[in-house]
Amino acid sequence: MRWRDGRESDNVEDRRGMSIPRGAKIGGLSGLGLVAVVLIGMLLGIDPTVLLQGGPEMQTPSVSVQRSPRPGVNRVNDDQRKFVAVVLADTEDVWQEAFQKRGRTYQAPTLVLYSGAVESACGMAGSAVGPFYCPSDHKVYLDLSFFEDLRTRFGASGDFAQAYVIAHEVGHHVQTLLGISRKVNELQARVSPSERNKLSVRMELQADCLAGIWARQADESRQILEAGDIEEGLNAASAIGDDRIQRKTQGHVVPDAFTHGSAAQRVRWFKLGLESGNLQSCDTFNADRL
Fold first, then answer.
1. What is the residue range of 126's domain?
2. Which among 107, 120, 243, 246 would be 20 to 30 A from 96, CA to CA?
3. Residue 248's pLDDT is what?
4. Does some domain include residue 5?
5. What are phi and psi of 124, to 5 degrees?
6. Helix-strand-coil percent breakdown of the chain, rounded to 5?
7. pLDDT tens digits along 146-158
């Protein structure tokens, strides 16, 4: 992926090196409670952030966070930080243009880099939950150690695989700005748990599709793609499908517990966005086939 000469976004908030005092609770849970929630979420196929946050409007008790030095982090010349900032800037350019065509103004999200645990408007979260977007503060949260997990645990390596993850979370921000997230949350409050999961799957697949739109538009404008990049993105989308994660963690698949979509579904919707490059193709909520 060609990114080194790209513009860096100013909307990166670097909280790495901040630590939570011993005994502090994360999302109202002790450290062991957090681990239990994350494992339960993985075993049941439920997004752990949903369990921790209790919904986007939930407010959890404030936890004081203290700064502590983190060896090896150079915030001026940190290569990974630069990569994230360039990809974020690229999403800003793509969605600003897309919103302008619809007569709207794109409000870019902030991307928060953290290590270990972080406080958001959706509550406290540990790095075990993976990257997430909080609609209450319009911020994407990312512990860069997830990229190593993506490579070692999920077998999805490469810079474009990492860019896909960022673009997916920004896709949730786009959904929030378009009012899609609010409508889905209202529907989820009125239906059964299994129906809530189905709505969640449609949300996540749409975010995959929006990530595909970003890839296409960014490449048309700035030629960011190199040989093998698309395969990296598709591999990442497949690797984090609910069926593959469930099979790895519990040995069998429970489709009713899907919250993000199967590997095949995630690949299909990412490809749809990549091939079409337009928002109309990403209407997962009216699609007969996911």
1. 12-286
2. 120
3. 83
4. no
5. -85, 145
6. 55, 10, 35
7. 999 999 988 999 9
Per the domain annotation, does 2 fall within a domain? no
Residue 146 to residue 253: CA distance in whole angstroms: 24
**In-domain check, residue 3:** no
Burial class (CB in 10 A: 0-12, 13-18, 19+), 117: buried
The verdict on residue 238 lying in a domain is yes
pTM of the model: 0.82
Whole-number Å distance between alpha carbons of 173 and 141? 12
- Do the Cβ atoms of 157 and 150 come closer than 8 Å? yes
Report yes or no: 112 and 88 within 8 Å, Cβ to Cβ. no
As for how many domains the chain has, the answer is 1
Question: Is the distance from CB of 148 to CB of 158 less than 8 angstroms?
Answer: no
Measured distance CA(240)–CA(242) in Å, rounded: 6
Segment 105-146, tens digit of pLDDT: 999 999 999 999 999 999 999 888 889 999 999 999 999 999
